[in-house]
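User: Assemble these into one structure.

Assistant: Restating your components, then the assembled model:
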Amino acid sequence: MFAYLVRRLFLMLVTLFGISIVIFFLLRIVPGNIVDILFAAAGYVDPADKANLEKELGIDQPLVVQYVHWIGGFLRGDFGYSYVSEKPALQEILPRIPITARLAGLALLFSASIGIPLGVISAVKQGTKLDYALRVVSLSGLSLPSFWLGLLILTASVAMFGQMPIFNPNPQTWLEAFATYAVPAAAVGFRSAALTMRITRSSMLEVLRQDYIRTARAKGASDAAVNYHHALKNAILPVITVIGIEAAFLIGGLIVTETVFNIPGVARFLVEAIRWRDYPIVQNLVMFIAVVVVFANFTVDMLYAVFDPRIRFTE
Amino acid sequence: MRSVWALAAVAALSVLTVSTTTLADEGKQGGILRIYHRDSPGNASIHEGATYSLNVPFMPVFNNLVIYKQDVAQNSMDTIVPELAESWAWVNDNKTLTFKLRQGVKWHDGKPFTSADVKCTFDMLMGKSQQKFRQNPRKAWYNEVNDVTTNGDFEVSFNLKRPQPSLLALLASGYTPVYPCHVSPAEMRTHPIGTGPFKFVEFKANESIKLTRNPDYWRKGRPYLDGIEFTIIPNRSTAILAFVAGKFDMTFPTEVSIPLLKDVKSQDPTAVCVVEPNNVSTNIIVNSTAAPFDNADIRRAMALALDRKAFINIMFEGQGDIGGTMEPAPAGLWAMPKEMLESIPGYGPDVKANREEAKKLMQKAGYGPDKHLAVKVSTRNIPVYRDPAVILIDQLKSIYIDGELDVVETANWFPKIARKDYMLGLNLTGNAVDDPDQSFYENYSCGSERNYTNYCNKEIEKLFDAQSQETDVNKRKKLVWEIDKKLQEDVARPIIFHARTGTCWKPYVKGVTVMSNSSYNGYRYEDVWMDK
């Protein structure tokens, strides 16, 4: 188990190093920089002023020097200053992380707590009206883009209740706090829940046809014991994989959801930073997301080992 | 005797009526005005920006020497009133503009305001000081100013190279606040200090901007509001829905498009909405340094092919204006008379005849039904740019020009224009002040950085100077019309239309005036109050 852990940790570090290179150079390949954008906003380009500003921000340096400067700072915990706000990058990023983390966590919770039970029910009740109804729900979840669902929820809230659940930084009531996160989390988690439900259903159907399930039933085990103790435990591995992958994909969904619900989280902030070519913010934020995703996958790998002991021995 | 009593009664009633009106019109103190903001401005320094995304939230922090009267929609020389100045006078054959300054005014950090601050500000704008702005987009406004001198703590003079009556108009713009000497440009970008009715509290990028009432404001009894909060909501649908749901008291000024305005009124019939021109023209920039638009006939044909009315009908449901460089009347002060405008090729009402003429010019240049000219129409990837570009491409088809849309990201737009890497471009030009000096020198003068097409006509340049020095308004107007007509005939930067946009607020918000000939000057907010 220890060797397995070390191997995975080493792989994680190599992946992060590769990601840092990709992030840095991809950003530089994109045409235009912060100075171009600042001058675009002013409607003119003054070559002398432009050169001065590039020098001030250090983007006139060779790329390798810029990379070493950035990654060295990152490792030392010095994340530099935002080109746009001129505030420390960490000061800009940190307050936004809990907001997105809460939203993503709730969305994943929504996805798992709705998707897994409904998937099990759908599999157990295969071919019934309930199964068909649940499959329609899951299909609609996969088909509805989260931005559209978000706008639909907002429009319906205004039309039906005259209220709107957009972000409130200082909620006064429990209901406001709930609406601040729960509604957008449901909007972004709906698609995830639908996917989780479908994977759970198909995985369960496969397991339910296994001989040992028949044996368990023959031995007089109750339906609940068969479905949840014997079948679900073995059907859950692909579901965990999907939830792990979804955690990474969630960032994409959150960009749109944070924009529609006007949530000042990292996802929307990242898009704005890319638009401004605010390198210190983009590099550090994407690196942070990469760390989270790589770590989530690492956790999933560890969970595999916990759920299926054969994995540690075969690897 | 009876008539004397009757007169007295009428007089008493009149006094009562007047006093009642005054009471009703008096603002109530208190309340936070909540406005949504369309995007996150790059910084908080008005002098370093060129977008009204910056003026709207930060103009309330500052004062100018003079300002356009905030409760009059149409900016003109007659509506300029003193602000940090108490009075002004033109002396020395109109070559010196002297201001007597208000005494006892304090910066938000408690330091006193003096003439040194005015000198510092304008020296920095003219690039004459040690401290520099990172960007100085309006440096050219002060080309005719030799220097700024002080006489004691409360008098300042602008010494000009030649008379320029428009200088006063430029000083009255929302783009011309006075900055404190003791605060660096870098600090002003992140934490602006002004003398204005509201103090800066915080600016969270992509989130919010908060201002609070300045209790020591020099204008007693103002501002009425306790503060202003701007919530940054880039998504238009969310912002409008939030306004309808009562999360905001006011929309972002001039940001509600005509179709959206209908939505707002249908969902919230109590909302007060006004539609005004905003002195932003949608125009075509032509690269006349390279083929095929180095051919004057093709440039003229393109201008003749425009059906301006169709643009306005499609994009604004008919609510837009056709004009030249200067904003059309009645909102615009310098617009050509209708007959003069319609005498310019392409402006006549008979679009079909114009296009027939255009076809002939194209055929003369070697193009026709069997040989179309392929061009790229470049524009920024923003709906207000993209949408008219698509209509333009459609209209050009009628004269054998096949356009292809080339959508350019904002970061790459100006570098692309600067290196002349375009054939046709669809562009928007906003004017901070409805004044020919600002518009002509900035957009058409030889060597100007914002003259994207490098149009340069020495004869017209002389006329620019002539109108700029002319102190008789009527004579100046005639010169301006002549110049504007010539610019359109030369296809210097064909103007397609001037847009109109909407602003809405809740009925309890009082004292809002939306300017009709500029989107940059009406956001001091010291007279705004809430009746609730």
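Chain A touches chain B through 45 residues (CB under 8 Å).
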